[in-house]
Amino acid sequence: MTTLDFSPLFRSMIGFDRLATALETAYRSEPGGYPPYNVELQDENRYRITLAVAGFSENEINIEAKENLLTVSGQRQVTESEGNFLYRGIANRSFERKFQLADYVKVVEAKLEHGLLHIDLVREVPEAMKPRRITIRSADVSPAIEHVATEQAQAA
Predict the structure, then answer these.
(1) Which of 42, 96, 117, 156 could join 51 via S-S bond, C-beta 3.0 to 4.6 A?
(2) CATH annotation of 33-129
(3) How many CB atoms lie within 10 A of CB 55?
């Protein structure tokens, strides 16, 4: 198997360690798996993850968000009344799916309907992190700090 070396990308980038780790993890992970899922972009700041979890009830599914990692796991409860199957085509196995979340992405809601688990996410960027317009002053206007210092010197 060929491996990719991302180190040339990060030689001049400081603080992008998580990005390098995410790229390497995505490269190593195998596509597919159980359960199948969709990731949908609903608008600029809203996302939805949908997992096909037919046969699982709400109390058999666990959703945990910790730091920037969303983990969805399912553990089927085996009951004695399941019967004697001649053929079992419906998956009856446990699962765990992990999703790496970007900064400021939070889980808003999760609901189970018709065998599909919908997890709604929203990106809430803090006001301090949003782009802001910087006014440009002309060079002939002296800074306000110098005016205050000059006025205080004249008063003394």
Answers:
(1) 117
(2) 2.60.40.790
(3) 13
Residue type at 4 in one-letter notation: L
pLDDT in tens, 86-123: 887 776 788 999 998 988 899 999 999 999 999 999 99
> Tell me, what DSSP letter sits at residue 103?
T
Place of tokens 């990060």: 10
Q: How many CB atoms lie within 10 A of CB 142?
A: 10
Pick from 154, 149, 14, 44: which is nearest to 105 by CA? 44
Any idea where the domains of the chain sit in the sequence?
1-31, 33-129
| Amino acid found at 31 | P
Residue type for 18, please?
Answer: R
Nearest to 30 by CA among 122, 97, 101: 97
Q: Which residue has the tokens 């996302």?
A: 47
Give residue 50's pLDDT. 97
What distance, in Å, lies between the first and last C-alpha atoms of the chain? 78
> Starting from the edge strand earliest in sequence, which strands make up the sheet with 105-113, in order?
37-43, 46-52, 116-123, 105-113
Sheet holding 69-74, edge to edge: 61-66, 69-74, 95-100
